Amino acid sequence: MSVADVKALTFDTGGTILDWHAGVKAALTAMGQKHGIERDWTHITNEFRRRSLGKILNLGETEPPAYNFDVSHRMALDSLIEEHDLGAFTDEERHTIAYVTPHNLKCWPDFPATLPKLREKYMCVSFTILSFRIIMDTAKANGLNWDAVFSCEAIGKYKVLPEAYKAVAKYLQLDPSEICMVACHNFDLDAAKACGFTTAFVKRPDEWGPEGPPDPEPNPSHDIVAGTFPDMARQLGVTI
Amino acid sequence: MSVADVKALTFDTGGTILDWHAGVKAALTAMGQKHGIERDWTHITNEFRRRSLGKILNLGETEPPAYNFDVSHRMALDSLIEEHDLGAFTDEERHTIAYVTPHNLKCWPDFPATLPKLREKYMCVSFTILSFRIIMDTAKANGLNWDAVFSCEAIGKYKVLPEAYKAVAKYLQLDPSEICMVACHNFDLDAAKACGFTTAFVKRPDEWGPEGPPDPEPNPSHDIVAGTFPDMARQLGVTI
């Protein structure tokens, strides 16, 4: 099996397609200005991401998940509000930051025009820890059309549990090697690779804003390493 | 709550969107001609549907489903082959009838142009007992784009079990009354209605070919009764 045998692309969506840092930071900054509060919004934004990820990765390992990523977002924000003395934020404002904002994130500008080209050759699905509604709402906001949305919310096993990757291979009715996991994170690709997936690392150096991503260097085991989505498409033999 | 509060349309897809009768009958007829065999292909087609439905509806009630609709199709065909003395059909030909054909069914001609209009106002998802791959493959073959595919294959509870409808309402993060189940079958709509969904019956008089559908008259409890998809769209306030 090789990249030439790939029939489906499964896209991590959270950071790989959506620019959560810019969106969440803008929402926090705007809310701070409204209340005349200054904080290190860049830091708080990244903590929001780090904590919500911490609450969702591997969820479902021992018992069914009790919540989805929307709830995880809200829990992360509430803990940050307490620590950073942001009690002035109203409940509606907290909902705007933790729910409305993630459902309206912009995607990286090199993706929307590339997706339809990839879909001509491959099944292209979102395979995500995000809730269905985040994917559906952001798809609408960005004009994306997925062939299907595989949210860990329905699988009941969150990345990086192997059951999540195996469930997606089953739904796609493909050998894992015929599926290419696309992500900007080694942890996701490594887990997919351990289940037999082909893997494509797409660099998103701005995912964490000026701080930079925590693990930016692709592991050498990945089948494709690309700087941009058009670059990845070309490596897959798709004309851009 | 009323039709004006609906935010999402969940489409039964098997008979409501896809013309399984024409597709399966054509495949059976072609295979018969190849072998010089004459049978009542109309009848066998409907039995194929009836039996595959019988093997999938309510699956998962007491234990996790052991198979999906593709397997159900194949089991239905194999039983028909035995009964109708069709042993001349090769394994590849059986695969063509039971797998390739359902994955390439044409949809009713009034649907493809209506779907994008509906998507401007509503989330439009396939909510189906069919496998993910049947929905993804037929969407591609017919140029459809769904906002998401909710297959009972992932839910683990098949229609008309209430858990299936409740799972979809949960994923959509909507009150069931804000979701309109769209189908040409009372059994599906009645089950949705029992879970609080709004319901739209769209007539598909040709679904079972010349035999006609077994239950063509909409129950009076449905919120919308439409003769065509453009008709349903207009009743939802969508300009066609």
Main beta sheet of chain A, described?
A: 6 strands, parallel
Radius of gyration of chain A, whole Å: 18 Å
The H-level CATH homologous superfamily of the largest domain in chain A, spelled out, is HAD superfamily/HAD-like
C-alpha end-to-end distance of chain A:
25 Å
> Strand sequence of the main sheet of chain A, in spatial order?
3-2-1-4-5-6
CATH architecture of the largest domain in chain A: 3-Layer(aba) Sandwich
What overall geometry of chain A do the principal axes of the alpha carbons give? Answer: globular
What is the residue-mean pLDDT of chain A, rounded to a whole number? Answer: 98
Count of DSSP strands of chain A: 6
CATH class of the largest domain in chain A: Alpha Beta
How much strand of chain A? 5-15%
Largest interface: A-B, 23 and 23 residues
Supply the number of structural domains of chain A: 2
Unreliable segments of 5+ consecutive residues of chain A? none
